[in-house]
Amino acid sequence: MFELAILGLLQESPMHGYELRKELTAKLGAIRAAISYGSLYPTLRRLQAAGWITEAAETPATAEEIPALTSRRGRVVYKITAEGKERFAELIAQTGPETYEDAGFGVHFAFFSRTDRATRLRILEGRRRKVEERREGLRDVLSRAAVRLDAYTLELQRHGLDACEREVRWLEELIANERSGRTPSGSTPGTVPDTPGTAQGQSEEHIPPPPGQVQELRPERP
Amino acid sequence: MFELAILGLLQESPMHGYELRKELTAKLGAIRAAISYGSLYPTLRRLQAAGWITEAAETPATAEEIPALTSRRGRVVYKITAEGKERFAELIAQTGPETYEDAGFGVHFAFFSRTDRATRLRILEGRRRKVEERREGLRDVLSRAAVRLDAYTLELQRHGLDACEREVRWLEELIANERSGRTPSGSTPGTVPDTPGTAQGQSEEHIPPPPGQVQELRPERP
DNA sequence: ACCCGATGTATCGGGCCGATACATCGCACC
DNA sequence: GGTGCGATGTATCGGCCCGATACATCGGGT
C-alpha cells in the first residue's frame, strides 16, 4: 500500500529514506500517524528488486563539492525508473477491494490530483458504499443489541456511527463537486485536466506526468 | 491486542471461534470492521499455549444426548481459566503507548465497564493527549505546507483535522462525566470490584442509556 | 434432487509495526 | 574544551494481523 505512496512521492523528486518518511508523514498524516522504518526500508528494497526504483549514490551535485571535509556518510537517494512510473500509473488507476478501506482509500485520495476524473468518481463512490455498509452495521448493533452491550460499548458505537455519517456527507460533497467539475476548495489549477461531458471509459494510456505542479522539494542542503 | 478482547468476551461466557468472531465484530464494530480468522485462530492457539484459556469439547450437555446420529462435528469451545482472568485484569489495568492508539484505545474503551474509574480517566486523558498531538500535527501541515500540497491532499488533512477536533470534544465530555461520577455503569454483575458510590447516571448531557444487563449468550441449541 | 447461504475450523504468505542498534552532526550549556 | 543531547540517517528482527484459500456440514428453499 505504501508502494503507491512511495512511487508517487519519488515521481516528484528523488529522495533518501529519512526524507521520504517525512514527506509521507506530511502527505498521509490524516490517515496514519507515521510510516515506520520497519515498513519503509523493506518496501524500498522490494521496489528496487522489482525495478521500479533505483539507488543513486549521494549526489556530488556541483563537481567542485567540498570533497572530504564532512564526508557526508550514508544517504542513499532513491529515484523512480520508467517502469516505476508505469507501475504508478497502473496502481493509481486500478481499484481493488482494499482501495475502499480506510488506509487504501486515503492513499489513493492523496494522489487524486494525478488521477483521472472517472477513476476519482469510482473510488469516491466505492468508498461511500463501504462506509454506508459500516454505518448500517453499527445501526443494527445499536438498535438490536442495546440489551446485550454495556453503556460504554454503546457509546463507542454511537461515536463510530457519527463518524460514519459525517464521512458519508463529506463524500457526497466531494462527489457532487467532481460531477460539477470543481476541485476541492477551488484552488490549485494545473492538475489533471477534466474531460467534461460523457464519462467515456477509454483507457487513454497512462496519465502523463503531472503538468506544471511539480515543484522543488527542499533542494539538497548546500 | 485481541488478546484482551478475547479474554474479555470469554469471561462472559465460553464460546467457539465463529461465535467469538461475531461477538468481537459486534463489540468492536466501531473500531475495525471484523477480526479475521487468520488473526483469531492463531491468537486462540497463543492464548491456549499460555494457559489463559482451555479447549472444551463440544458439550454433551445432558448425558442422554443423541449420541451419534448427527455427530456434531468440530466446534471447539474455548473457556477462560483462572490464570486467564488474572491476565485479563492485568491487561485491562495496565497502560502502554499502544493503549492510546486508535485500535488499542477502542478495545480498552469497549471494556470500560470492567475497568476501575482511575484507569478509565488515565486512558481517556492519555487518548486525548494523543489526539491533540495528532491535531496539532495536522494544523501545522495545513498552515505551513499549503504551498506544497495539492488541493486533494489538503482536503484530506482538513477532514482528518475535523475528525480530531470532534474526538477531542467527545473525550472532554467523557472525562467530565467520569469526574462528576455519572458513570454509565454497565458493569456486569459480579465482575468488577467497583468503587462504590457510583450512582446510576441521571440523564443529563449525553451519557445516556440503559444500563445493559448481560444476558446469557445463546448456548446454541438447534 | 440439487444447490445455496450460513455455520464452522484451519493454514499460508505477506505487509506493517514497534523495538532496537548503530553512527554522525550541529549546537547549547557548562 | 569537553560533554551531552536532539536531529539526521540507515537498517534488522520478531511478532501481530490480514486476505485468500481450502474444506466440511447443516437447514431450507426450489
UniProtKB/TrEMBL annotation, chains A, B:
Q: Note the InterPro entries from the entry.
A: Metal_resp_DNA-bind_regulator (IPR052509), Tscrpt_reg_PadR_N (IPR005149), WH-like_DNA-bd_sf (IPR036388), WH_DNA-bd_sf (IPR036390)
Q: Give one Pfam family, short name only.
A: PadR
- Domain Transcription regulator PadR N-terminal span(s) in chain numbering: 6-90
Which parts of the sequence are annotated with region: Disordered?
177-222
* The name this protein goes by in its record: PadR family transcriptional regulator
